[in-house]
Please model this.
Amino acid sequence: MRRFVVIGQRALASPEFSLNDLPSSSGRLDVLVRCLRAALMVSHGLRRDTLVYLVFKGGAHAPKVVRFAGAAARYLRPDERSLALMVQRALASVPAGQAGLVSYKPGIDVGVGGLELVRAEPDAAPVYVLDERGRDVREVPLDPGGVFYVGDHLGFDPATRAELEERGALAISVGPTSIHAEDALAVLVNELDRALPPALEPA
Amino acid sequence: MRRFVVIGQRALASPEFSLNDLPSSSGRLDVLVRCLRAALMVSHGLRRDTLVYLVFKGGAHAPKVVRFAGAAARYLRPDERSLALMVQRALASVPAGQAGLVSYKPGIDVGVGGLELVRAEPDAAPVYVLDERGRDVREVPLDPGGVFYVGDHLGFDPATRAELEERGALAISVGPTSIHAEDALAVLVNELDRALPPALEPA
Model:
């Protein structure tokens, strides 16, 4: 299973944001849902072998995690507004004090908590982190079953950096240009596809 | 100069669509603006050496072209809604019967017409077309000053295919998976960056 963990440093963990102005009102949920699309979606379907965790670290109700599973999710549209609406409803559905991830819809789970919700899952996979100073993805062996951490436009907060260090994350980069996180994911996913063509699922 | 030509087979050439439902109301402008972002934008800036042509072939007022120039455009936000609003206003600004591309704003030009508006520009550059059956971008020499044609979720219409054949377009592909056009562009642009690191411009 491929896993991607996208950290939204200021992404609001509560649903009080406007779909009509995601960049200013949501703490850049637009970045997170573009990362979700790039990691999870293919032409006419989803990647069955992929989990995407969006981590919301912004606002009074943070942190929360919303997890998308390509093998089970249905009716996802690729545009930002549709994906943001799905996230908004998932964030609104979780009761305060809920322990662990709970199902919002098939293939979409949500929980109150941060990276401990990601780490709680059975895991002996190698950990990678996208980092412009890391080693070129074309020059390191990539485990298609790895866990890949991605920062938003702000990079990573100190707690996430400490977690990555503790897990021995290998820093990897995707080329000579400083590009958007979602584009880096598209390039990384392409590299993984070239190593091991993926299982797909009609949408 | 890198040039990308994104063909929207049903993308509405008139501005009568809703920003609240781009996929259903605009003929998939959401796909076009995601391609625009992937081709033109980097972290905290634009690519100075890049032109992106969006070709609108849908509706009664088609075709139209909106061209973005990274060297001159300003104040572009990367989210779909902001880019779609910019396109909507550009489409509304052009008088019927206008000949050639005219300026809407610095770095954004618009014109009534189709691929002839792209071809009218001085051009001896090689032409490429993204095509899943094409040769792997890692196995062909790519001219970073080429013209790259990209289809939307529907591929290409017969007139565009004829134009590409006439121009001797080389079909290129980006890997083993059928992915979204915007992801294919991210991978292609990465390949071009690896061949020739780009000039960038703060946003």
